[in-house]
Amino acid sequence: MGNDPRYASMQMENTLKPGQQRHPVWGVVVFAVIVVAGLFYVKWSPYYHRAFVAADRHSIGQSILMGTAASAPAPSVGAALDYAIVYGKAVWQALVLGLLLGSAVQALLPPQWIAKALGKAGFGSVAAGGLLSIPGMMCTCCAAPVVVGLRERRASPGSAVAFWLGNSVLNPATLVFMGFVLGWQWTGLRLALGLLMVFGLGYLVNRMVTPGEARAADAEVERLLAQAPQGGVFGRWMSTLAKMTLWLVPEYLVLVLLLGAARAWLFPHVSPEIGNEFIWIVAFAIAGTLFVIPTAGEVPIIQAMLALGMAAGPAGALLMTLAPVSVPSLVMTGSAFRLRVLVTVVAGVVLFGIAGGLVTTALHF
User: Fold this and answer.
1) Which residue of 212, 238, 256, 325 has the fewest CB atoms within a 10 Å radius of its CB?
2) What pTM was computed for the model?
3) How is the chain split into domains, by residue range?
4) CA angle, 293 then 315 then 332, to 5°
5) What are the backbone angles phi and psi of residue 240, rounded to the nearest 5°?
6) DSSP category for residue 333
7) Is residue 132 within 8 Å of residue 163, measured between CB atoms?
8) Which residues of 312-324 are buried (b: 16+ CB within 10 A; e: fewer)?
């Protein structure tokens, strides 16, 4: 009887905590298919072909910020709509994929997986979150639903921050585009400071967790693991997807419209008058942190500004700040992090932007 597989299965069932049920294997399979097929269609295949374009033309398109003009259009409803349309065409597929993955993390994966892999307060979970982000290659807003899903499944704040920042800052495709378009010294700077930003800020955020918060998080993980699932897995997935879509997308669209209208306020007329003075570096670091762009959008923006005569210092600030966060992504992840965590991330990104500006100035990029 002890060697009977059916008896072993019954023993394993009896070790489950009260209320805990086995997670269906098909949920994990569906999640894996969405990850591989979705990323291949939306990210991996298009970026592979785009890399050859960047190598051949030393360009990946016009600046989404202001096109070929020296300044962004004056604030208006038209400017807001024009930017939202162009931006929407660039990111809608990735946003849909982000919503699918963010809801699937909560419904299709066994709840203990995320807690065990990313739930610790040490550097290990931060490293795992940062490494898991690299294949995603999403912009900050499209990664936001996945970050929310990870936090709902009790990933530690630091690992979720590393995943969030790593998607855009350590994006391999963007690094390749940057090398062919701007020069490989820009890629090296982005990679060096990007590694410090992703893993350093992630570790700092985890260190901010108090013992009381850690105990509360552990208790919540235990409650989550012991909680009996409500309804079928597919039904929970669709319900979670609908809630995330209705909650995140409207506020996201409104903020994109507002930033599209405010481009002229955030980014002044670009000319050789914008030099390497510290005030310009700080100003562009702050503006880049607030503004929202699609994946790799910083590359043509910086290329256009340099062509108009702007100095390398402000461009270095934009190199490190345009991609990691934005006002819309901060709002979208507002429920996933405490306010002090978001303030720390914003301050950290601005400081890394200033560092990028100072380095490009010192090294005469």
Assistant:
1) 212
2) 0.90
3) 25-362
4) 25
5) -65, -40
6) T
7) yes
8) bbbbbbbbbbbbb
Mean pLDDT value of segment 65-79: 88
- Which amino acid appears at position 234 of this protein? F
Q: How far apart are CA 219 and CA 320, in angstroms?
A: 37
**Which residues touch 48 (CB under 8 Å, ≥6 apart)?**
none
Residue type, 182: L
* DSSP output for 190-209: HHHHHHHHHHHHHHHHHHT-
Mean pLDDT along residues 132-150:
96
With tokens 């306020």, the residue in question is 265
In eight-state DSSP terms, residue 43 is I
Q: Report the candidate in 31, 36, 98 with the shortest Cα–Cα distance to residue 234.
A: 31
Could you tell me what percentage of the chain is helix, strand and coil, using 3-state DSSP and rounding each to the nearest 5? 75, 0, 25
Which residues have C-beta within 8 Å of that of residue 38, sequence separation ≥ 6?
97, 100, 101
Token pair in block for residue 267: 């980014």
The answer to whether 139 and 180 have CB atoms below 8 angstroms apart is no
Q: Name the average pLDDT for the chain.
A: 90
The CA distance from 349 to 194, in Å, is: 10
- Confidence bin at 51 (pLDDT 50/70/90): very high
Cβ-based burial of 210 (10 A; exposed 0-12, middle 13-18, buried ≥19): exposed
Asked whether 178 and 190 are in contact (CB, 8 A), the reply is yes
